[in-house]
Amino acid sequence: xxxxxxxxxxxxxxxxxxxxxxxxxxxxxxxxxxxxxxxxxxxxxxxxxxxxxxxxxxxxxxxxxxxxxxxxxxxxxxxxxxxxxxxxxxxxxxxxxxxxxxxxxxxxxxxxxxxxxxxxxxxxxxxxxxxxxxxxxxxxxxxxxxxxxxxxxxxxxxxxxxxxxxxxxxxxxxxxxxx
Length: 179
Description:
2 domains; 7 helices; 4-stranded antiparallel beta sheet; elongated; alpha+beta
């Protein structure tokens, strides 16, 4: 089990196939409504607490995302969802992926743009959801209300690469006049 914490709001845990066997869980059986999955999550968070010397407060909003690995393991991302930590995470990344639940939210975000500044590449999954991959900077964050209309996906290159590979590009250099 590899435990990494790139910032105060995020813990990344990589489980090998052997770790998964030891925890008696598979990627396919993970479901937070299942008591066994909860047991595994609490076990992992406890190990992370011992290794990192700090807690993630589970009483607040916590996003748990899991990605399977080729060799039978998985990566689990634990992210505390508060505005201050989310903003720091967004700023620290080279590119960020935001997901919109529908086209109306994309249009509402566009209405906040007053100039022709491109904000990134827009993708669709074909079911009505959209993702925007953007190289955000602090100036752009303060100018645009991303958190009102979308939610950040897994930070960094992994989410961007998954989106580029499995979603359909709708617009490059997306922004006013480019959609």
